[in-house]
Amino acid sequence: MNMTSGPGAITAAARWAGAFILLLFAAASRSWAAAPELEFHAPAAVADAATPGIMRDLAGRLIPVYQDADPLQYLANLSALQLVAGDYAAAYVSRQSLRDRRRRADATRPVGRAVIYDIYAQAKAAEAENRVSFADSFTKAFRDVVPRLSDQDAYAVEAWLGASPSRFQEALQESLDQQRTKDSIDQSEAVKLVWTYLSYDAYRSFAPLVQPLGAEDDGRRYATDDEVLIKTADGVNISASLVRPKEAAAPLPTLLEFSVYDSPEHAKECAAHGYAGVVAYARGTRATPRSVVPYQHDGEDARAVIDWIAKQAWSDGRVGMYGDGYSGFTAWAAATHVPPALKAIASSGPSAPGIDFPMQGNIFENSAYRWSLQLTETNAPRDAGEEDDAAWRSLDQKWYRSGRPYRDLGRLYGHPNPIFIRWLNHPSYDRYWQKMIPYREQFAHINIPVLTTTGYFAPSEPGALYYFTQHYQYDRHADHVLLIGPYDDALMQRGPSAVLHGYDIDPAALIDVRELRYEWFDHIFKGGAMPDLLKNRVNYEVMGANEWRHAPSFEAMAAGSLRFYLEAAASGAVHRLSRHKNSKATFARQTVNFADRTDAGWMPPVDLISQNLAPHHGVMFVSDPLAKPTEFSGLFSGRLDFTVNKMDMDVHVTLYERQAGGAYVRLFEPTDEFRASYARDRVHRHLLKAGERQELAFRSERMTSRRLEAGSRLVMVLGINKRPDREINYGTGNDVSAESIADAKIPLKIRWYSDSYVDIPVRR
Asked: In Å, how far from its chain's centre is CA 468?
């Protein structure tokens, strides 16, 4: 349910294209280290008229000097140089030689992305030799290759071919920008730049041709119905898309996604993997005008769709549900009362209403207003990239500076939203939220296999972990496996990022999670082997160790814990995380002036690695250097000992590894946040005792796993929420959404006593 977009969007697209290109280009041989650099002056922009000629010249000068000891890599890179140099016949011969060499080794493997350049080289060679249009030669090359592939391989190839050329244009522009201040280029970087240009040039050439050719191929493979209507018990029609293989010899199991987003392509992906694929849409999603009511009817409506599927002639009576974000939630909503035909659930970052959205830690977030408005109103402003994101930030700041109650957010924007107000009326995890997904003993009746995936840097992680922990709490024999690693909420849409917000992801974590999900479904429905990565209930990647580990529970991830006390410094802004309790009663002071709005422009940092740390309304505690490498794996917890002059406060806790070189590495993201009055019980509010010393136990709703190096320090930032994109808790003890700056006459004042501690689960 991540609503973020904007400044990072272009860079993300460039990184996607860069990752694609790196799959095709491997580092050159070590002999290149001594090779002379080539003179090269990068053009200013991709669109410059001189760019094709400059790149053709570079490729032409590289061909006579290019060497590589690996014959496969040599042929791959040589073909790229020949294509950009304009020697298409030679490039096609090189691609054929490469394909012949790989045929024996790749006989049992799925088709690789290199097939795109096989098709392109064949098309360019035929265009030059036969003097036909590129459209004609590419069409023939496509028809020569793709129809011979399996459904699964053909789906993959068509998806790769359908990538937007803009992604490759952005990657090429980024590469040219990096080269612009130089007047030469080493041969390894030159070959990489040639690949980047080739990818852009190829994709812009065949982009207009892919969709009709793909549709032609799909028509041969699949039976498709995009206008299915399924009637619910209360007479509402649920719209759905159905795709199934035409050549199926017998009824098939069905994979179902129930969504508020139009995603019929997902049904085709299921069909390509040998299932009947159905994507059904929440009531009102396809209506005119749009009239969606999030969460409230999805469980019963999804069950109606499952019952309908089980009765169809093409169905073998078994249904698996899958999805991420909202459609991950709908699978759990359907399982509140498990339909007989529902046999498995695979969800990635599933939303848990009332747990991780529209609030986390019982703190409402502005993104919930934005999402609900766009989902429920046809005429609501739609997201349109960076400029639109800036408009929403402007609304956040306008509300923040105004000091008005949180309930007035919609009025300030000119779009009052009854759905958002209804949510604000339920700040506790009460029956309004409880009836949307399984609650307490209802988890004990979910006796079907479940796969949950999420990431240490995913906003939806608390929801995913809630489902997992509750399932096992009420059924210790549950068949539920968790896969978690250094991922964000875009995991299923674009796969793992090699570089995530400035952090280099371990190679071991760069797996195809979508294919893993199909392998898991094949295990359930077709008797296939359980994926090796899912060896135990908790399967997690240890950041920094480049290794997957497997454990039967969160507790078993660690061999024990390290307790750090929050020891106040005699002076200065940085305090100490001490392994020993201070015999003296010390405390760190913190004051937060909610009436001060000079920080309206503050935004949380995006990068996961930074050289400086400037806590926003937070107090920093730093440990001594670690004597030996230490693996932090699991859910941390702690106890806060404090006095406060208010009856409530919203607390945030963030943990970092401060490496010996001075860099701060976030151990999870976003920050762990919770309303103090709900820390003990998310259902019932327990106000603080103003002016009295008291204790508050907490347990993180975010888990992580990282190998902390010897010499690194653990850093904890403990603070109070005061930010433009969150509800502000002024501490009166009344309805937080109705509080305003009028309640901020007296600043919040806290003493954090040195008896406070945090427990870090570790595996030595």
From this structure: 18
Q: pLDDT of 62-74, one tens digit each?
A: 999 999 999 999 9
pLDDT category at 380 given cuts 50, 70, 90 is low
Which H helix or E strand runs over 391? helix 386-402
Q: Which two tokens stand for residue 670?
A: 């976003």
Written as one letter, the residue type at 621 is F
User: Residue type at 360?
Assistant: Q
Torsions phi, psi for 189 (to 5 deg): -65, -30
* Angstrom distance (rounded) from CA 409 to CA 416: 8
Partner residues linked to 619 by β-bridges: 718
Closest CA to 526 of 135, 255, 305: 255
> Rounded distance, CA 734 to CA 729, Å?
9
Q: How many C-beta neighbours within 10 Å does residue 325 have?
A: 25
Total residue length of the chain: 764
Beta-carbon contacts of 194 under 8 Å, excluding residues fewer than 6 positions away, are 55, 58, 59, 62, 80, 81, 84
Place of tokens 């590289």: 62
Classify 191 as helix, strand or coil. Answer: helix
Q: Supply angle C-alpha 43, 46, 47, rounded to 5.
A: 105
CA-wise closest residue to 563 among 553, 577, 575, 576: 577
* CB distance 298 to 264 below 8 Å: no
Which two structure tokens, joined as six digits, stand for 758?
A: 């945090």
The one-letter amino acid at 279: V
pTM of the model: 0.92
Q: Please report which confidence band the pLDDT of residue 109 belongs to, taking 50, 70 and 90 as the band edges.
A: low
Q: Is the per-residue pLDDT at 375 higher than 50?
A: yes
Structure tokens that stand for 658 in this block = 């401060």
Residue 582 has pLDDT above 80, yes or no: yes
- Position 11 scores a pLDDT of 39
Tell me the three state secondary structure of residue 335.
Answer: helix
Torsion of CA 158, 163, 164, 166, to 10 degrees: -140
Q: What is the 3-state secondary structure (H, E, C) of 523-566?
A: HHHHCCCCCCCCCCCEEEEEECCCEEEEECCCHHHCCEEEEEEE
In angstroms, the CA 424 to CA 608 distance is 31
Token digits of residue 283: 């009531």
In our burial notation (b when 16+ CB lie closer than 10 A, e otherwise), range 737-764 reads bebbbebbeeebebbbbbbbbbbbbbbe
CB-based burial of residue 556 (10 Å sphere; 0-12 exposed, 13-18 middle, 19+ buried)? middle
Give the three-state DSSP class for 655: strand
